[in-house]
Amino acid sequence: MESLVSGNPLAISQWLLTLLGIRMSVHFSERIPAGASLVLVSNHRSFLDAPLLMAGLNRPVHFACHHYMSQVPGMREFVNALGCLPLDAPGEQQTFFREATHLLRDQQAIGIFPEGAAPMVQRTDPFEMSEFQRGFAHLAMKAPVEDLVILPVAIASTQETVPSVMPLKVLSWFDPSEPLFDQSGWHPAVIYRKVDLLVGHPVRVTDRLRSHYHGRRAAKLATEITDSCQNEIANLLRQGAY
């Protein structure tokens, strides 16, 4: 395990899924673009989502993670080993955008969970989703990268266990600015047993698309891209439910 942690997030992901005995099926893998800079977006309920998606796409992905995950001992080492990019303190995301843009220019993959942290700390149905935030769309439109693709992927869990791991109040010690932690109850940990990954249709960020990203039109275009990806994932989840 020590050799894996030394710098191979994909190998760590594959090792972890094997260790936990997770049975994963990947559908529509022909939609995964080869060699392109990638902004991967997905629904999010489990700490296993990042390694699951890496293993499913068979490539390292630098996932954005909540600020508190870089502060909690044990969790901090886990996200560092996976090559995650902790988000800055709330309201200040310049460092994340700068690092993500640098990686995209180097033809790497960035993973973003647009639902935020809420589905992670609240028990939810495997086929429910919260409203997507638009940050990933703005990142894709602003990044000065020619061959860039946004790829929506649905995680459809069909068998899982959900133990409680710690009181939410404990996490407020590490990030007192997060209102999700200022409540009673326990942080759940979704552990997949059987799960489907369903790959959606890629959105290619072309010069023509970027030409519409200016002025008041920029926010509207980001909303359209966000809604399109959320609808795509919702439709894939419905397929995974049957």
Helix and strand arrangement:
Elements lengths: L1 H4 L3 H12 L2 E5 L9 E6 L6 H9 L4 E4 L9 H7 L3 E2 L7 H12 L3 E4 L5 H4 L13 H8 L5 E14 L2 E4 H4 L14 E3 L2 E9 L3 E3 L1 H4 L5 H25 L2
Parallel strand pairs: 1-9, 2-5, 2-6, 3-4, 3-5
Antiparallel strand pairs: 6-9, 6-10, 7-8
Helix pairs in contact: 2-3, 7-10
What does this protein structure show overall?
The protein has 242 residues and is of the alpha/beta class. Helix content is 37%, strand content 22%. The strands form 2 sheets. Strands 1, 2, 3, 4, 5, 6, 9 and 10 form an 8-stranded mixed beta sheet that branches. The radius of gyration is 17 Å and the shape is globular. Mean pLDDT is 88; it is low at 1-5.
The gist of it:
The protein is built from ten helices and ten strands. It has helices spanning 2-5, 9-20, 49-57, 75-81, 94-105, 118-121, 135-142, 168-171, 207-210, 216-240; strands at 23-27, 37-42, 62-65, 85-86, 109-112, 148-161, 164-167, 186-188, 191-199, 203-205. The radius of gyration is 17 Å and the shape is globular.
DSSP strand (E) fraction? 15-25%
The whole-number mean of residue pLDDT values reads 88
Number of strands: 10
> Radius of gyration over alpha carbons?
17 Å
Shape: globular
Count of individual helical segments:
10
Question: Which class best fits the helix and strand makeup?
Answer: alpha/beta
Largest sheet features: 8 strands, mixed
Terminus-to-terminus distance: 37 Å
Low-confidence stretches: 1-5
Percent helix among the residues?
Answer: 25-40%
- SSE run: HHEEHEHEHEHHEEHEEEHH
